[in-house]
Specification:
The protein is built from 16 helices and 33 strands. It is of the alpha+beta class. It folds into six domains: about 10-75, Arc Repressor Mutant, subunit A (Orthogonal Bundle), CATH 1.10.10; about 90-150, Beta Barrel (OB fold (Dihydrolipoamide Acetyltransferase, E2P)); about 155-220, Beta Barrel (OB fold (Dihydrolipoamide Acetyltransferase, E2P)), CATH 2.40.50.700; about 245-490 and about 550-620, no CATH class; about 495-545, no CATH class; about 635-715, Beta Barrel (OB fold (Dihydrolipoamide Acetyltransferase, E2P)), CATH 2.40.50. A hairpin with a 4-residue loop joins strand 32 and strand 33 (about 710-715). The radius of gyration is 28 Å and the shape is globular. About 35% of the residues are buried. The model has no long low-confidence stretch (mean pLDDT about 90).
């Protein structure tokens, strides 16, 4: 048996001060002993036990107050509490459908509750200043919005409802809590019942509703084109390219000049393939394979050379910067570049010469890298494969280019194994996919998993992205590191991680958070254990929210989730503007160009990160809309479902096989009075004790579909 760790009096006094500092520096937050330990960076059991003991003593001496079982906060009546309490803060609004809101502080401390009467015309995701009220015992932190620092958006999408002298816009977005008043003189041709885009023109202080003007008439609700354009307008994404940008794209010749090919390394004789989704139109990456005389493999990752066509200062460049990314919605892609480039000249089509920027590696079959080369190339793809085709070849061992694909997959498996050994997280979420008819209506829904073929491509893209970032970002000799665009991912918030650990423990799962490697291994085991269970969707969703969000920056902090010290986005310049910046910087630095200014590139990184977030929102909204549309003719039908979430309003149930999530409202459960047991994620009947627990199977009946709001209501079939 090992000796139990003991502490001196000096050490204990130091611990007491450190523990008090955590509470005093966060006067509105409450913590348990594990959360305090996490904030202090303490992981050993003996020290955590001491912290628990100290918190108990501070509670007995009334320097801490218990906010709820196991959690404490500073007792502001304590003589030792001398900190000046903040009376205001800035943050971002999280608006609810009822009109109440929460403000998420910039410093990531406790959220502030804002009653509907105290929002003062602030809207969802606005940047605001908040006056904080004195805390009421047993209540969340509360406040009032006193200033709108920056509006998140001014244009809204919805349906027009007209009367004799005026009209209102009924917004589609549930986070917009009020209708927009529109004088008849500002309808600009919009008719009752049409989908439109409206811009807020003013919002008088005494008015309950903002005033607006119709900017664009989209058309009839329910039409596929209209609904998808509505989603794009909702995220302020441009609906079309300017005539100037289209004209520029059309001006490029179909054939690559021989003078340009002569300046590049020629990979046209080398075996090269693309692997993409069956319905893909733009192919921006290819992989080549060649056996070398020394027995090694030469594996090339070839990326469309968008920078050859898109030049700084051009109209196409301006539009690409504004968009930041392509948007992938159900049944359609809204490209970052005009289709002449994205689906044509830059797309690595089978049997056609294409210009690329390549990362080429000399490797062995165990994925050991002996040398690397970056440079401009020309390729000609031997075969355009779909993921399904390559998967069939991997599984059967037969088909076209079987040997080459088997070799590429063997090396990819080694790359993947090495990444997980170093602490990479394995987030494998199922993708909801649709079969659509000619009008764009969904006829079927199915779930698509990441299989070996998908992972094969992912592993080589990760390799290229990592090596490009290392090539520029690693300090060599005494040379200063040049400015570059990185894809970064920070460590998770300790409090969020502790809350998630407690959440999964109540569901019967364990997480080890003592080190980065043990946490990654625990997460990966958790994802494997929950696969196919009713808790899968909710646990994955909360896990992703627990982790920090990846973003673009010139300040490299590494990529926590991938366990990479250096990481960039190099592999998709057709659909991501940061990749185009990486191509330009890499090429310039290879020509010994001086370092660029961070002040120029960092704002573009921030904008690209924001546009990426909006694109993800649009993709999610299009999936929800198509799921609701698919369920329209199924009202009254029964389905097997799994409980995917619980709230004080009702039970979220997800239909097995389609992930169509709807709510069983508590007010519709008339056999008992049900209440939320928040701590154990269940709904309990007060009289009969019937429990609805997260992950339980149940049968539901489709009650109502609100297509405009993308919402589904279910009944429980007892």
């Amino acid at each position: 048996m090992g000796k139990k760790k003991s502490f001196s009096g000096v050490q204990k006094n130091t611990f007491v001060k450190s523990v008090l500092d955590v509470f005093q520096n966060n006067p509105y937050s409450s913590f348990n002993y594990k959360q305090v330990a996490a904030r202090l960076g303490i992981k050993d059991r003996a020290s955590m036990d001491l912290i628990s003991l100290i918190i108990g003593q501070l509670f007995k001496s009334k320097e801490l107050a218990m906010s709820k079982r196991g959690k404490y906060q500073i007792n502001q009546d304590s003589p030792r509490f001398t900190q000046e309490v903040k009376t205001s803060l800035t943050g971002t609004v999280d608006m609810k459908q009822t009109g109440k809101a929460y403000v998420i502080p910039d410093d990531k401390t406790e959220d502030v509750f804002i009653a509907a009467t105290n929002t003062n015309h602030a809207l969802h995701r606005d940047k605001v200043k908040v006056f904080i009220f004195p805390r009421r015992k047993g209540h969340k932190l509360e406040g009032e919005i006193t200033e709108i620092i920056r509006r998140n958006k001014k244009q809204f999408v919805g349906t027009i409802e007209t009367s004799k002298n005026f009209a209102f816009l009924k917004p589609d977005n549930a986070t917009m809590p009020v209708d927009i008043f529109i004088p008849n003189t500002k309808l600009n041709g919009a008719k009752n019942g049409q989908k439109v885009v409206v811009v807020i023109t003013e919002w008088p202080a005494q008015s309950a509703n903002p005033f607006g003007e119709v900017k664009e008439v989209l058309g009839k609700p329910g039409d596929d084109r209209v609904e998808m354009q509505s989603i794009l307008a909702e995220i302020d994404f441009p609906l079309s390219f300017s005539p100037k940008a289209e004209k520029e794209a059309d001006s490029f010749p179909d054939k690559i000049p021989g003078s340009e090919i002569a300046t590049r390394r020629d990979f046209r004789p080398v075996f090269t393939i693309t692997i993409d989704p069956e319905d893909a139109k733009d192919f921006d990456d290819a992989i080549s394979l060649r056996s070398m005389e020394n027995g090694h493999l030469e594996i090339g990752v070839h990326i469309a050379d968008v920078s050859y066509y898109v030049k700084p200062g051009s109209a196409i460049e301006e539009e690409a910067v504004e968009r930041g990314t392509s948007v992938y919605m159900v049944g359609r892609t809204i490209p970052m570049l005009p289709e002449r480039l994205s689906n044509g000249l830059c797309s690595l089509r089978q049997g056609e010469d294409r210009l690329c920027f390549s990362a080429v590696f000399e490797m062995d079959e165990k994925a050991k890298i002996y040398s690397e080369w970056f440079g401009k190339t020309v390729i000609n793809s031997n075969r355009r494969f779909s993921y399904e085709e390559v998967q069939a070849i991997i599984e059967s061992g037969t088909g076209e280019y079987t040997s080459e694909i088997a070799t590429l997959n063997k090396v990819a498996l080694k790359l993947r194994e090495e990444r997980f050994q170093k602490g990479s997280f394995n987030f494998e979420t199922q993708e909801v996919r649709f079969k659509l008819d000619k009008q764009g209506r969904p006829t079927d829904i199915y779930l698509r998993e990441m299989k070996e073929a998908n992972k094969l491509i992912e592993d080589y893209m990760l390799l290229a992205n990592r090596k490009v970032a290392e090539f520029i970002g690693k300090k060599r000799d005494n040379q200063a590191v040049k400015t570059f665009v990185y894809r970064v991912h920070d460590t998770p918030n300790p409090e969020k991680l502790e809350n998630f650990t407690q959440f999964v423990e109540r569901l019967g799962y364990k997480l080890k958070i003592s080190s980065k490697k043990s946490l990654a291994d625990s997460f990966n085991k958790l994802f494997s254990d929950i696969k196919g269970t009713g808790t899968e969707t909710m646990i994955e969703t909360i896990a992703i929210r627990t982790m920090s969000k990846a973003y673009y920056s010139t300040n490299n902090i590494g990529h926590y989730g991938l366990a990479f010290d250096f990481y960039s986005h190099f592999t998709s310049p057709i659909r991501r503007y940061p990749d185009l910046m990486v191509h330009r910087l890499l090429f310039d630095y290879m020509q010994n160009a001086p370092s660029v200014s961070k002040d120029v590139y960092e704002p573009i990184c921030e904008h690209a990160s924001e546009m990426e977030r909006r694109a993800v929102d649009a993709e999610r909204m299009s999936v929800k809309y198509k799921q609701a549309e698919y369920m329209l003719d199924k009202v009254g039908q029964n389905f097997d479902a799994l409980i995917s979430g619980v709230s004080k309003w009702g039970i979220f149930a997800e239909i097995v096989g389609t992930r169509c999530e709807g709510m069983i409202r508590l007010r519709d459960l008339e056999d008992d009075y049900y209440y939320l047991d928040e701590e154990n994620y269940q709904i309990i009947g007060q009289r009969h004790g019937y429990r609805f627990k997260l992950g339980d199977k149940l049968k539901i009946r489709v009650k109502r579909i609100d297509l405009a709001r993308k919402q589904m209501d279910y009944d429980w079939v007892s």
